[in-house]
Structures are given as C-alpha cells and as structure tokens.
Fold this sequence. Notes:
This protein is of the alpha/beta class. The chain has 21 helices and 10 strands.
Amino acid sequence: MTFHLGYGTNGFANHRLDDALDIIAGLGCTSVALTLDHHHLDPFADDLPARVAHVAAKLDKLGLRCVVETGARFLLDPLRKHHPTLVSEAQEVRVDFLIRAARIAAELNADCVSFWSGIRPADVPVQEAWRRMRSGVAAVLEGAEPLGVTLGLEPEPGMAVQHLTQALRLREELGAPSLLGITLDVGHCVAVEPDDAATCVRRAGALLVNVQLDDMRPGVHEHLEFGEGELDLKGTLAALVAVGYVGVAAVELPRHSHAAPDVARRAMEALTEAMPEEAAGPRHPWLADAQRAVRRDPDVVGRLFPAVGRRIGRGLARPDDPQGLVHGSVDDAARAELLGALATVLDATTLSARLLALYRHGDDAEKRGVLRGLALVGDRAVPAGLEIVRDALRTNDVRLVAAALGPFAADHLDDHGWRHGVLKCLFTGVPLAAVAGLDRRVDDELLRMVADYAAERTAAGRDVPADAARLLGRGE
C-alpha cells in the first residue's frame, strides 16, 4: 500500500479528456495529474459545473485519484506563455485562476492543487519578486482554506522559486500553514538541485503532496522519458516508499503528446520494472473507497478504522517478515493510508486530537495502524505523535515497539528516548531492521549503552544478540 502511479493529461494534449483518462486507466494507473486547460476542463467555461461533475463521475468510475495541475501555457494570456504569474505585476489574474482551480479540486475530491511561482521579470528586483510571491500564495491560501483544499508549491527551474530549499523557506515564512505542501518534480532535482532526487524526496518528507515523474540531464530543463537522462529511478521510487508517501506520483511528459499512448505505455513499463518490492501489489477497492470517504467526511474514520482488518485482511505485509515486526501487516498499512487521507483534510489541532483518540480507544491492531501512520502525518502533529510513540515504547508488546520506531520517531523522538527505544528492541527481540533511520542516528552514546548491555550478557553467560554484535562491529 503506497503511492499511486499515474500520468499527466498535459502529455495527452491531442486527445479528448475522456479518451485520455480511459487510456491512462487502461495502462493500470491509479491516478491522474489533470492540467486545467482550454481543451481539458477549461476553468473559464460557461458550463463549468456540468463539466466538473462529468469529470468527477469519470474519475470515480475509473478509480482514478487525481491532483489538479495549473501549468497550462496560454490559458491566461494567448500571447505570452505562462503569463501572468505570481511574481508578475498582474498577479491577481493568477491568484484568481488558482482559487478557481481550488474550487474545481474540491468538487473532484483531488489531493491538491499544484502550482509554481513564475519567472522573475528582468526589471523586478529579487526581493520584490519574493514579496509578490509571498503575498500571492497567502491570497491563494485564504481562498483555498474554506474549501479545505491543499496546495502544492512546485520548485521550477529558472523560476523565482526553483529550489526545494526556497519552497520550504517560503512555507516557513508564511507560518507553515497546514494546507501548503510541496510538489516535487524528480526530473527538476536532476536538472538544478545540488542533491539527487532521492535526497530531495527525503528532505521534503511528509510535506510532499504531489510528485511528478520524468527524467532529465543536469543543467537542462527538458522532460525526458525514463532512461534518457540521469535520474536514478529505482532509488527515487524507493525513497518515496521509505518516507511513506501515499499520494499521486504521475509521469510528466508535456512535450510528448504526439505519441502519447506509446510513451505512456513505455513509462508505465519502466515504472513497474523499477518499483520497489514493498510497493508492489494490487490496490484493494474497499481502501480506495474508504480514503475517498474520509476526505469527504473526516468523522467517518472512527467507523472505518476498526473495520479495516475485516475488509482488507490481517495477513503479513511481507512473507520474509514472519512476525510482521519490520514491515507490519496489510491492515497496518491500510490504516496508515486512512490516516494519510485524514491528514489532507484536517488542521493540525483537530488532526492531533483525532490521532490520540484513535490510539487511546483502539485495540492493539488499531494502535499499530496509528503508529505506522505517523510517518504519513509527519510535522503536522508532532506533540501528539510523540505522546503516542512514548506510550507504545512503555509497553511490552513487541509489535507496538517495532511500529513506534518508524520514520516519525527517527525524525522527531529526542536522543534519550530514541536510544532507549533501540535498546528495548534488543531486550525484547525486535530486529533492528524495524528501526528507521538507525544508520543516521546511531551515536557514541548509543554504542556505549549497547556495549554495556552486551558485556552484561557475556558476564552472565548469555549470548549477545546478533543485532547488537553487528551494531558494535563485531558480527559478520
């Protein structure tokens, strides 16, 4: 249970939208990145409500999750590509368009509205462009908030916000609003970022609300088919799995519409071949319906959360993990995805309260689901998440302990608590493979504690666990 592979309709510019959606779904995609344009759901059409209703029904029939993209080239100005932008003098035109897009996204039950900053005009100082960008995003957030629609800011080569660090900085300057996340084009990472795409994925982490997939070469902003550039596709997909991303990951090839069906087929074949083993497997239709229901009405999660085991099953996620301590069970993963859906529609305070209630009143399986779902909630509920993790580490249930030391704990648990959590794994027989971020967080103090533990066992005539020996560098 992981992210949803899809394709962008801007790569089907020569197709009717219905035909494009049929082809995309027919390739096995479970999502689509829908670019609003004059030929694909024109946001300025006189009959827009009817068109939106039609597309919503089509997406539901095909089982396609979606994001709304706003990068149409000449939608707002027939003479100037992508004009006006959020850093233009006529910024209000772009703001109006993005708010229109948010209304459409709400009707489509889309994950987010994706957008970028625009190119800074040559006669506009950098500081003024940044001020315009900040005020424009604030205005769009104000319009999107009553709708509960998430926005995904995309760093774009050559634009005012072209690096991930700039997008993260802007978010912080705006007060880290819960409805503002990150759209990451992995090809852009190859083209202009100092780090590779996998590192950028890990840095964005829980703030990722939309991912665009394509290949590129360093220094060149040209969308290429997989294998034609220098993207580490396998490593990038593995990073998405590792951070617990469960949103849309759609191929972005806007200049390949002349051969769209063949290009899309090749892209999906490449993605299927590169997909990590833990991301494989068909998607359960009940879970897809449950996620849509939660995004429409967050209150239903209280009814759906206990039902997951009955509807999805309780089998192990991986046959090579016989106790489910490393990878959990299929119902763990499904509950985590429900929390991921919940996090897209609730503010931080309400989300924290809901997480605590689900954990406190749930059985052991439901508690594990909350713990594994914290990776998908990330920075949005840190105090509540830490309370839940610390409670689980106080128990003697090895499956709760294992689930507690996932990516959320690796990123947020204090050094003292994390070290003792690792030591508890050694005490209780939880494999250290269950501990996320171990290589990154291991330090001299942890090694000292493990060495003392190993010495005590040796003095008592007991075997030293293999994980402890390996951690100390004494194992095979």
